[in-house]
């Protein structure tokens, strides 16, 4: 189902991206509408798949997850069975915050959040014990400069 999105929908989406815990009254005021039409639009956007799950952002450092690694993976395996095992291994590991299949020399890039380098090694050893990879390069992020999930509406 394709959902038509107008300027009011974009304003509502921008408000929800900024703070999804706002009340309908606050969102309606911010977009220049009333509560019922805003609720109907949000429901339409949810039903149409534009709005997904609602979550909260946790402070990784405050919870002791101080190391963020970007893991570059090259593989010589490209058959469906290997890919299924690899995707299952990634989905089963909470440390993997993001995983992308790439075009170019690198096949996959992962964003892995762990407590420290030792915890990364435990993750790495478990991953390579489950799936064969040709080459793995881990890059430690020294500083997070920008991180957002907000789309430029």
UniProtKB/TrEMBL annotation:
The keyword Kinase does not apply. InterPro entries: ArsR-like_HTH, AsnC-type_HTH_dom, Dimeric_a/b-barrel, Tscrpt_reg_AsnC-like, Tscrpt_reg_AsnC/Lrp_C, Tscrpt_reg_HTH_AsnC-type_CS, WH-like_DNA-bd_sf, WH_DNA-bd_sf. The lineage of its organism: Bacteria, Pseudomonadati, Pseudomonadota, Alphaproteobacteria, Rhodobacterales. This is Leucine-responsive regulatory protein. The keyword DNA-binding applies. GO terms for cellular component: cytosol. PROSITE patterns: HTH_ASNC_1 (PS00519), HTH_ASNC_2 (PS50956). One of its GO terms (molecular function) is sequence-specific DNA binding. Keywords: DNA-binding, Transcription, Transcription regulation. Residues 5-66 form the HTH asnC-type domain. PANTHER family: DNA-BINDING TRANSCRIPTIONAL ACTIVATOR DECR, LEUCINE-RESPONSIVE REGULATORY PROTEIN. One of its GO terms (biological process) is regulation of DNA-templated transcription. It comes from the Bacteria.
């Amino acid at each position: 189902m394709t959902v038509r999105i107008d300027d009011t929908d974009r304003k509502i989406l921008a408000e929800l991206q900024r703070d999804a815990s706002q009340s309908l009254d606050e969102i309606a005021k911010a977009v220049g509408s009333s509560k019922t039409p805003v609720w109907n639009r949000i429901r339409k956007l949810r039903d149409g798949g534009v709005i997904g799950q609602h979550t909260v952002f946790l402070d990784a450092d405050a919870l002791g997850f101080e190391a963020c690694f970007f893991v570059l993976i090259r593989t010589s395996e490209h058959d469906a069975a290997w890919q299924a095992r690899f995707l299952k291994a990634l989905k089963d590991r909470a440390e993997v915050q993001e995983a992308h299949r790439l075009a170019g020399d690198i096949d996959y890039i992962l964003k892995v959040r762990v407590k420290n380098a030792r915890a990364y090694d435990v993750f790495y050893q478990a991953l390579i014990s489950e799936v064969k990879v040709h080459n793995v390069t881990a890059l430690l992020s020294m500083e997070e400069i920008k991180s957002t999930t907000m789309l430029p509406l």
